[in-house]
Amino acid sequence: MLVIAFFVFTGLYADVLWYDQLGFLEVLTTQWIARTVLFIIGFLAMAVPVWASIQIAYRTRPVYAKFNSQLDRYQEVFEPLRRLAMYGVPVVLGIFAGVSTSSRWDLTLTWLNRTPFGSTDPQFGFDLGFYVFELPFYRSIVGFASAVVLLSLLLVAATNYLYGAIRVNGREVVISKSARVQIAITAGLYLLLQGVSIWLDQYATVTETGSLITGAAYTDVNAVIPGRQILAVAAAIVAVLFIVTAIIGRWRLPLVGVALLVVSSLLIGSLYPWVVQRFQVDPSPRTLEAEYIQRNIDLTRDAYGIADAEEIPFEAQTTAEPGALRADAETTANIRLMDPLVISPAFQQLEQFRQYYQFPDALDVDRYEIDGKTQDTVVAVRDLKVSGLGDAETWYNSHIVYTHGYGLVAAAGNQRSAGGQPVFLQSGIPSTGALGEFEPRVYFGETSPDYSIVGAPEGTKPVELDYPAGGENDEQTQTTFTGDGGPKLDNIFTKLVYALKFQSEQIFLSDAVNTSSQILYERDPIERVRKAAPYLTPDSDAYPSVVDGRVVWIVDAYTLTDQYPYSNKVSMSEAIADSETLPQTLPFDEVNYIRNSVKATVDAYDGSVTLYAWDDEDPILKTWQKVFPTTVKPMSEMSGDLMTHVRYPADLFKMQRAVLGRYHVTDAGAFYSREDAWTTPKEPTEPANTTLLQPPYYLTMQMPGQDAPSYSLYTTFIPEASGEQSRNVLRGYLAVDADAGSTDGKRAEGYGKLRLLTLPEDDNVPGPGQVQATFNSDPTVSQSLNLLKQGQSDVINGNLLTVPVGGGLLYVQPVFVKSTGNTSYPLLQKVLVAFGDDIAFQDTLDLALDVLFGGDSGADAGDNAVDPNAPPETPTEGDGTGDGTETPTDGTTGQSAEMQQLLRDASGFLKAKQAALADGDWAAYGAADAQLAETIAKMLALTDGGQ
Fold first, then answer.
1. I need a labelling partner for 71 at 20 to 30 A (CA). Which of 92, 416, 812, 910 fits?
2. What is the maximum span of the chain, computed from C-alpha positions, in angstroms?
3. What is the rounded end-to-end Cα distance, in angstroms, of the chain?
4. CA–CA dist 687, 92 (Å, integer)
5. Any residues with CB less than 8 A from the CB of 481 and at least 6 apart, and which?
6. Is the peptide bond before 122 cis (omega within 30 degrees of 0)?
7. In 435-549, which ranges are E strands?
8. Residues 167 and 65: beta-carbon distance below 8 Å
9. Parallel, antiparallel or unpaired: strands 609-613 and 632-634
10. pLDDT classification of 218: cutoffs 50, 70, 90
11. Model pTM?
C-alpha cells in the first residue's frame, strides 16, 4: 500500500512541478480542488442516503416475524456479514458515485461561472446559455439523484424481504407498516424525480437531432413537447399517490397510477407524435416545417460564424483572352508552386545535413515581409531525430547530448530554381537568410524526444550538441541551455521522482544530472497547449514562425459545444479530414458551435505557452476565464510581428465549408428540397475511388469585393450528388481573409471576412476533378508525361490550385519529377494551367500563362526569372544530398523547336512500340524501341548541354 501510494504521489508531484514551471499551476490545482470537492459530494450524496435507507429498514424490521426455511438459511449466511454489508455497500457505491461526479468538474465549473449569450432561443425564449451551461447540469443532477433513490429503493426492498417486513405467501404479499411507509415514500420521490426529468427533456428537444433538422420541428413542438409536459405532471401526481399510500396504507391507487402512467407514456409519448408526423406532417412537410427549418438555418449559420458571409454572384469568364490577367498581376505573382506535401524530400536532401535531423513529411505555409513585399513561404523546422544516431543511440546521447533541433528553413512558395529546386529564403547551418537574426535552437518541437536533461553550472564545459560546424574534421559546436524550460533536478528527491516517472535509473545515477539541470518533456506544442488549457480544442496543425527574434509555434484553439439550440451537428473529425489531414479521434467530436477563441504560442526554445483571447466576446471563453482568471492574456498584448503570422485556422474553415455546403441556402423551402446542395470535391490527384476531400489552400489573392490582394484561405464546391450522377462542375468558391494585419494588439478590419462566389446553374465551369481529368487525357500532356516517366522517374502531380483571376477561375498545378534513386527528391519541371476549356503545359508558370492567354497574359508569375533553357542544377555534397551524386532530372526543360520535334518523334516511336507489342511483331517492337532510346538520348544531350 505504501509503495503504491508513493508511486501515485510521485506522479502527482511531477505534475505539480511541470505546471508550476510552465506558469499554469492554477489550472492543475483548480481541477484537483474541483474533482476532490465533487468526489466528496458525490460520495456523500450516494453513500449517506443508501446507508440511511438500509439502517431504517433494518431497525424497523418485525421482531417476531415468522420466516420460512429458505429465509432462515439466507439469514444464517448473511448475518455474520451484516455489519460489513450495511457499511460496505454504501461505501462502494459512494466511491463509484464520487468518481463519476468528479469527472464532471468542467460541467460544474461552467455552471457556477456561466455567462449569458445575450440571445434567446425561438421556442422557449431562454438565453442560449441556458442550454449550453445550465440544462446539461440540471439533467445530470436529476439523473444522479434518480440513481441514488433507485438504488436505495432496491436495497430497502431487499433488506425488508430478508428480515420479514415483506412476506410472500402464494399470491398474497404482506408488507409491514414501516416497510410500506419507507418504500412508498422512496418510490414517490423517484417518480417525482422522473417528472422533473421529463419536464427538462422538453427543453432538450431544441438540441436533439431529428430526421430532418437539429432542433424541435413541427411534431416536436405540437406533440412531443406538450406530451412531455403532460407526462411530467402525471408523474408528479402518481408520486403524490405514493405519499398518500404511505399514510393510508392502500396500494391500489399508486399501482393504478403507475399503470396509467406507462400507458400514457406509450400513447402520448410515442403514438401521438407518430400520428401527427404520419398523417399531418408527411403530406405537407414543406409548408409545416418551414418555420422550424428557418430556425435551423439561422441558428446554424450563427453557431458556425457564417451568418455574415458575403454572397457574390460570379459570372465566370471561360475564354482566355490576351492581357486578361493584367488587373490581377499581384495575385498571379504570388501563386504558390511549391507543394508543401511534395517537396519535403527536397528539404531533407538539401537541408537535413546530418542523420540526426529531420523535417516533417508535410511542411507548413507562412508569409514574411521581405524587401517591403509580402512573400508566401513554405517553412519547416530542422527538428531532432535521435533514432538517426544508429548505434550511437545510447541513453547519454539521446537525453544529454542530442537535445534540440536547429534552425527554421523557409523557401519561396512561388519560385523555383532552373533545376526545379526550391529557392530557399532561410537555410543552412548556422541559419542565414532573409528572415534576419533569431534564436535558431528548437528544444520544443513536434518530434522532439520524450525527454531531455539540459543545463549546467556556469563555467562548466558544454555537452549539448548545438550544430555540426562542418569542415574536414567534422567539428561540432556545443552549447548549454540557458532558458527556463522544465522542472529543475536540483535535489535527490526530484531526481527520484523523474527516475520513477520515466522508468530510468540513469536520471538518478548519472553524473551529467546536476543541481543546474532541467528536464524537458511534454514537448509537442499542441499537447502543451492542450494541457495548459484543457477546456480548449487545439487545431490539428501547429506551424512555426519567426516572431520577435524567436521561433514560436502558433496554435489555434477552439471553444466547442454540442448544445447550441437548433444548430446542425457536425462530426469534427470527419469535417477536418482530407488528403492533408488524416481522420483522427477527438475527445469532443459531434459539435454544433465553434469559435476560434484563443491564439496560442509555444516558444520553440524554452517551451513557454502564451494564450491570447482572440474572440473575447465568446461566452464560453468568458466562462472559462472566470474559472482560470490568470491564464489567458488579452489580444492587446500581441505584438505586431506576431499578428503578421497569425492566420485564419484551417480546421475552423473546414467546419464552415462542411456546413455551408447546404446552409448557403437561406430559404426554408429550397433548403428542404435540397435544390442547390453542394459538397467539397474529392482530391483530384488521388485515384478515382478516393474518399479523401481536397483540402483548402492558403494563397495571397484578391477576391471580388477586395481592394487589394490579401493572405487568404479558399475552397471550392461542386453539386452534391453520388455515384455516376455526380457532376464535377463548380458551383461555389469560398475564401476567407486570413490576414490579421501587423498592428500591435489590433486585428485587421477585414480578417475573417467570408466571401462566397456563387456560379450560375447554367454555367458549366469545370471543377477540380474535371480539370484533372482533362490534364491527364490531353494528348500533348500525355506525351510529355510519358517521356518524363522514361528512365525510371516518377511524375508527381502537385496540388491543384484554383485562383479567381481574369474574371474567371484559373487552375494551376505544378508537376514534379523524381528519380527512383535513394537520394533523389522531387524537382519542379512543368506547370499545368487551365482556364475554361483551354489548357497549357510549359516549363514555368509564366510561360504557361502566356501560352494560355494568347501569347501574353498581361502579368508576370513568380517564376518569370527562371530561364527554361538553362541546364538544371546538380546538387553536390555541399547542397545537402549527402553523397555527392547527381540528382536525376527529366531532361526536358527546353521548349526549342528542335526539342518539340524530338518530342513528336518520341511520341510516334512510343505508339509504334505499343502497336507492335499488341500485334506480337517483336522485330518491329525492337526497332521502335531502339529508335525511342536514340531519340531520348538526343533529348538528354540537348537539355544537358552535351553532358
1. 92
2. 117
3. 78
4. 57
5. 403, 404, 443, 454, 455, 464, 518
6. no
7. 441-442, 451-454, 464-470, 475-479, 518-521, 537-538, 543-547
8. yes
9. parallel
10. very high
11. 0.88
